[in-house]
Q: What sequence folds into this?
C-alpha cells in the first residue's frame, strides 16, 4: 500500500541518522551518579524534538530519580490509542579499552552505527519519533491514530520511577495498546515479534567478617575471609550443570506450549554457530535436556555480575577485607513471581552462611515474567505491516531479557504490548562495541509507520 | 649504661617526629603506577637526610622498578658490620572513606601518629636513621660499628628489585648481621624479637568464559558465568574448618619445637580479647586443634584479597562478564617452599576448572618462610639493649607476615637477621587508620642506639 509517510522517511534517512548520532553523543548512563545531568540533557533533547515535529502536551516530568518525557496527539476520534514507550538511558560503557571507537562518539562502520545505546534503546526509541515525524509531516500535522509517547531515563537501573508513574496516573496514560521497540530480530531480515519476556530479581549478597580490613600475614589463619565465605555460598547456588539449587526455585515454572516449542524448533538456529559467533566459550552451559532457546527464553537462571570489595588493583595487596559483596541476579519465567523467588533465595543464602561471618541479602530491583496472547488485533496489524516492509512472515519468539514495563502496562493500564524490535543478536547489548544495523533503523521506522496506519483500519 | 647518643635522641624527639611527618606526607604507594614519582621523591628525601647526618657513599640506585637507597659508614676497624634494612614504600590507602583523618596528612591523636606508613615501615625505618644521627652527632661523626643502610621502595609489591640487587652485589653489601625493624611488640611495653616469618605466594586465578561481555537476559542459561566458575573453584580450596584442600599442601610443614610452643603458651594472650578487639568477627576461623598463635605463626593459610572484573559500581548492570579474576595468596611455614607450593596449587586449581570456561593461574610474587636460631651474639646484644631501655626481658615470637628480604639476606649474604620492631598489634597495618605509638618511635630509636653500641663490645 502506498504511504506518503514511508516515502518521507526514505527521503530523510540521512538527516534521521545524523539526529540519532547527536542523541547518542549524550552519555546518559543512568546508573552512574556523575552522569545525572547528561540523563536530563537527553530528556530535554527529546522533548525539544517531539515539540518540533508537532506532538502536543510535551513535558519533561520530574521524578525523585531521572525524568520521564511525555507527549501526545489525541485527535483521531474513534481510532485506537497507542502508548509508545522507549528509554533514553544507557548502560555504563566499561570496559572502555575494549571499544574499537569511543562509546559516545557514534561511528559508522560496515553498515552499522557503533555507540553505547545505538540499539538499546536510543536508536530503537528514536524510530518511534521519526515515524511520528513522517506521519505528521505528510498529513498536515495529523496522525492516523491517537498516540501517547512515554520515555524513561532509568530502564537500565530498574525503572522504578516509570513504574510508580504508571501505577499513580493510569488516567493520563489511557490507551488501547502499547508499542515497545527494545527487542531484536531472530535473524537478519526475519521480521520478529517478541511475545514473552523473562522477569528478574537483581540482588546483592554482602558478607562481613572482621570489623576492619586486616593484614593477611598477621591475621591469616584466625580472621574469617569474607570472599572465601561468599564463594562458598555462591558455589552452592548452582550445581555443575547450571541448575539453580535454591529449594523450590522451579516449583512454579510453566513450560511453553507444545505449539510454541514446535515453532521454536523450526527457527533458523545453529547451536554451534551461536556458540562460536556469539558466545565464544569452549562449551555452552545450562540445564541438560533443554535446547538453547528454551534455556534462554523459558527457563529461569542465576548469574553473578561482579564481586566488589577488597583489593582489585594491579599487583599485590595482602589484605583480608572486612567485607565482600556479590551482585547476583535471577531471570524468572511464567508463572514464577519476583516476591516468591526472592524470599526462597534469601532464605537459602542465609542458610548457607559459613561460621565467622554474617550475611545480608538485598533486593535491588525486580520485574515479572510474562507471555502475550498472539490472537489480538494489534499483533495482527503488526504482522501485516512487517510482511509489507520485510516481505516475510513474522516469527514469534520470546526474549530472555526483562522489560518490567510490559508487566506494569498490563497490570495497571490493562494494555497488551506489541514488542516490535529491530536489533540483531550480535548487536553487543550491554557490552563493548554496541551497534545498530543502519538498514534496520530505517526499515524499523517504515515498519512502525505502516503498523500505526494498519491499526487505524 | 650512660649513652650520649640516647640523651641526644631524647633532646630531639620533637624534631625527629616532625621529620617523620614530612616523610609520611609523600604518598609513596608502590603498587599504584600513578604514584611512581612519589616513590622516587621519598627515596631522594631519605638520601638527602642520610647525607645531612653524615653517612657516606649515599646513593639513589636506579632499578627497572622503584629505586633503592644506599649509604654506609665503614671506619670502625675490627668492629662488626650491620646491614640496616627498611622500606620507604607503603600500601595503598583505600578504602579512603574509612580513615578518620587523611592517610597522607599525619595526625597525632591519643599518643599515636596516624598515617599510611606510620609503622609499616617509614616510621620504623626512620628510627634507624635517627639512631645513626644521634650516634654520629655525639661521637664527632663516628659510629661504634660499621653500618650499611639499604632501603627499598617496593616491599609492598614483592621486593623484586632489592632481591635482584642482593643476589648480584653481595660484595657491596658484605656485613655480619642485618637489622630489620618491620615487626611488632607482642604487647605494649613488652620488648620483642621476631625470630620466625611465614613465607608467601601471591597469585591470580583468571577464569574466562565468553569472548566478550554479554547481556545476562539474552544469554543467561547458555553462556558460562566466570564468577560462578571462579567461586566454585575457590570454594574447593578450603574446607569449612579453614583447612587448605590443595593435595600435599601440608606435607612439608615442620611443627615448632616443644620449647617454642611452651614459650608461646606463656605469652600474655587472651583469645576472646583478641577476637573482640582486633578481629571483631562473630567467631574466629582456622584449623581446629591449633591455638591462634600457632595458626597465625606456624600454620600455612590461604586468603582471597579481592575478585576484580565484571560490574562493581552502584546499582545494577546485567552483564555476564567475559572474565573474572581472584587475587589469592598463601602463607607458608618452614619447610614449605614457594616453588613446590605454587606447583601443587596451580595443578589443583586447574583440575577444578568447570566446563565452559578456561582458567589461568599466575604467580605474582613469592617469599620463603624462615626461623632464626636465637643463640647468636647479635640476638644476645639486642636482648641486653632492650632490657636496658624497656626494663623487661625480651620475648621471642614469630610473625605471620612475610619479609622476603630476610630470606634473601640469609641465602645470598649469609647474614643472620635481627628483627627488632616496635609496632603494636592494633596498629592497623595495611588497613585504614594505620598508626605508630609515638612513645614506641622514640624508645625504638633508643633501643637501636644501644643495640649498635652493644654489638661493638
A:
Amino acid at each position: 500500500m502506498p504511504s506518503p509517510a514511508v516515502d518521507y522517511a526514505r527521503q530523510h534517512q540521512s538527516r534521521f541518522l545524523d539526529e540519532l548520532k547527536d542523541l547518542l553523543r549524550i552519555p546518559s548512563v543512568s546508573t552512574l551518579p556523575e552522569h545525572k545531568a547528561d540523563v536530563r540533557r537527553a530528556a530535554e533533547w527529546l522533548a525539544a524534538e517531539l515539540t518540533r515535529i508537532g506532538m502536543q502536551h510535551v513535558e519533561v516530568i520530574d521524578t525523585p530519580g531521572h525524568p520521564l518525557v511525555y507527549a501526545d496527539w489525541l485527535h483521531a476520534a474513534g481510532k485506537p490509542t497507542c502508548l509508545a514507550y522507549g528509554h533514553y538511558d544507557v548502560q555504563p560503557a566499561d570496559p572502555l579499552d575494549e571499544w574499537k571507537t569511543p562509546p559516545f562518539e557514534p561511528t559508522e562502520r560496515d553498515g552499522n552505527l557503533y555507540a553505547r545505546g545505538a540499539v538499546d534503546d536510543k536508536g530503537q526509541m528514536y524510530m518511534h519519533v521519526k515515524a511520528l515525524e513522517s506521519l505528521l509531516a505528510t498529513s498536515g500535522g495529523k496522525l492516523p491514530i491517537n498516540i501517547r509517547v512515554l520515555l524513561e531515563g532509568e530502564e537500565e537501573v530498574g525503572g522504578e520511577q516509570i513504574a510508580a508513574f504508571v501505577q499513580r496516573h493510569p488516567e493520563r496514560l489511557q490507551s488501547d495498546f502499547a508499542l515497545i521497540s527494545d527487542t531484536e530480530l531472530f535473524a537478519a531480515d526475519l521480521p520478529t515479534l517478541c511475545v514473552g519476556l523473562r522477569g528478574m530479581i537483581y540482588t546483592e549478597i554482602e558478607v562481613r567478617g572482621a570489623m576492619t580490613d586486616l593484614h593477611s600475614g598477621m591475621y591469616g589463619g584466625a580472621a574469617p575471609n569474607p570472599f572465601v565465605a561468599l564463594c562458598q555460598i555462591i558455589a552452592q547456588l548452582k550445581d555443575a550443570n547450571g541448575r539453580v539449587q535454591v529449594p523450590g526455585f522451579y516449583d512454579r515454572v510453566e513450560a511453553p506450549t507444545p505449539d510454541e516449542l514446535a515453532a521454536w524448533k523450526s527457527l533458523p538456529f545453529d547451536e554451534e554457530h551461536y556458540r562460536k559467533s556469539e558466545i565464544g566459550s569452549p562449551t555452552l552451559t545450562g540445564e541438560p535436556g533443554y535446547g538453547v532457546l528454551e534455556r534462554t527464553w523459558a527457563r529461569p537462571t542465576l548469574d553473578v555480575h561482579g564481586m566488589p570489595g577488597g583489593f582489585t588493583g594491579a599487583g599485590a595487596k595482602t589484605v583480608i577485607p572486612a567485607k565482600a559483596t556479590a551482585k547476583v541476579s535471577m531471570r524468572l519465567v511464567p508463572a514464577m513471581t519476583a516476591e516468591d523467588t526472592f524470599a526462597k533465595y534469601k532464605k537459602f543464602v542465609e542458610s548457607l552462611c559459613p561460621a565467622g561471618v554474617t550475611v545480608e541479602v538485598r533486593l535491588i530491583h525486580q520485574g515479572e515474567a510474562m507471555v502475550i496472547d498472539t490472537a489480538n488485533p494489534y499483533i495482527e496489524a503488526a504482522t501485516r505491516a512487517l510482511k509489507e516492509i520485510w516481505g516475510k512472515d513474522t516469527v514469534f519468539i520470546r526474549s530472555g531479557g526483562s522489560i518490567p514495563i510490559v508487566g506494569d502496562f498490563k497490570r495497571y493500564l490493562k494494555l497488551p504490548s506489541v514488542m516490535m524490535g529491530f536489533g540483531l543478536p550480535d548487536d553487543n547489548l550491554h557490552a563493548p562495541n554496541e551497534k545498530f544495523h543502519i538498514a534496520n533503523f530505517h526499515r524499523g521506522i517504515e515498519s512502525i509507520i505502516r503498523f500505526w496506519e494498519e491499526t487505524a483500519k
